[in-house]
Design a protein that fits this description.
Blueprint (H helix, E strand, L loop, with lengths): L7 E3 L12 H6 L9 E5 L3 H13 L3 E5 L2 H10 L6 E5 L9 H9 L4 E6 L4 H9 L2 E6 L4 H13 L4
Parallel strand pairs: 2-3, 2-4, 4-5, 5-6
Antiparallel strand pairs: 1-3
């Protein structure tokens, strides 16, 4: 099981205080909450993870944070149906291409994945969409835009 330093979760205030408890406990035990409300933010920049987590938590989502490929995949190994939308940075310390996008699509084909990148090209966007990304967003981005994209992704049903 991953430590709280590797994975953290935030919960809507109506379900208790925000916490860095073990993510598995939070996501597997939320009464009345479905995986459709769980969002995984994968980015090695803690400020981006924090900003997205705060914004999405305030919008009513349960947010799981992972700083790298290994931590993100560990979550899917433990609970493959536990999350429905992934906000995924293209460049991570242990992943610099679209391989993590493809791997998540293999283990959790129901997930909608929104790619985030500061290194986007038209070719990259095309390849990401062909590989199953719901959307590709350039950094820096507007936090309200990201909330809207998460809502759109959830409304689209399984991708």
């Amino acid at each position: 099981m991953a430590s709280a330093a590797q994975l953290s979760a935030r919960s809507n205030p109506e379900n208790g205080p925000k916490s860095d408890e073990k993510a598995w406990e939070i996501f597997s035990m939320q009464p009345g909450k479905s995986p459709r409300q769980n969002v995984l933010v994968v980015d090695d920049e803690s400020l981006i993870r924090w900003s997205l987590a705060e914004t999405l938590t305030n919008a009513g989502y349960h947010v799981l944070e992972a700083p790298d490929r290994q931590s993100a995949l560990r979550f899917f190994e433990k609970m493959p149906d536990g999350v429905c939308v992934v906000l995924l940075d293209l460049r991570l310390p242990d992943s610099h291409d679209l391989s993590l996008l493809r791997r998540i699509r293999e283990v959790a084909p129901h997930c909608r994945i929104i790619m985030m990148t500061a290194h986007g090209t038209p070719e990259l966007v095309e390849e990401a969409l062909e590989s199953g990304a719901f959307q590709v967003v350039d950094k820096p981005f507007d936090l309200d835009l990201m909330v809207g994209l998460v809502r759109q992704a959830l409304a689209s049903g399984p991708h």
